[in-house]
Amino acid sequence: MKVKDAFDHQIDKFKVYCLRNLFTASQSDLTAGATPDSPRVALEKQTLRSRQHQYSLMSAEFSKLTAETAAREALLKDMLNASFTLRVGTQAFEELEVSPVVVTMESIVSARSKLQQICVDSKGMQ
């Protein structure tokens, strides 16, 4: 989040700079002391159009970077959630006792034979 806040702050400063210094030129500034057909006025108008075009390109790039940042933040959040889930799962497995397959099979067979004996006893009680 610190990186995002710093990025947003820098972009805000950039926008203010652009609006104040690059993309504002009044008609009186353009035509002060010059005729409408003078090369200076034409150059100023061309410069203004160029700056406006640069601003639109930078604005599009900013929108693209904002979308990419949001996507990466979502991915990071998913990765953190997955990491937490893996950690919890690991703790659950660590609590389980591990026994050899032979011992497990013997306990299953023993439980089955006990259940069969209970079934036989219950039929005898009827």
Quick structural gist:
This protein has 126 residues and is mainly α. It has 4 helices and no strands.
Could you describe the largest sheet, including whether it forms a barrel? none
> Mean pLDDT, nearest integer?
80
The count of DSSP E runs of length 2 or more, i.e. the number of strands, is 0
Measured distance between first and last alpha carbons: 72 Å
* Helix-strand topology string: HHHH
Helix content: over 70%
Query: Percent of residues in beta strands?
Result: under 5%
Give the helix tally.
4
Structural class from helices and strands? mainly alpha
Cα gyration radius (Å) = 37 Å
Low-confidence regions: none
* Shape, per Cα inertia axes: rod-shaped
Q: In total, how many domains does the architecture comprise?
A: 2
Features:
126 residues; mainly alpha; 2 domains; 86% helix
Kindly describe this structure.
The protein has 126 residues and is mainly α. The protein folds into 2 domains: 2-95; 100-126. It is 86% helix and 0% strand. It has helices at 2-22, 27-31, 39-95, 101-125. The longest helix has 57 residues, at 39-95. It starts with a helix and ends with a helix.
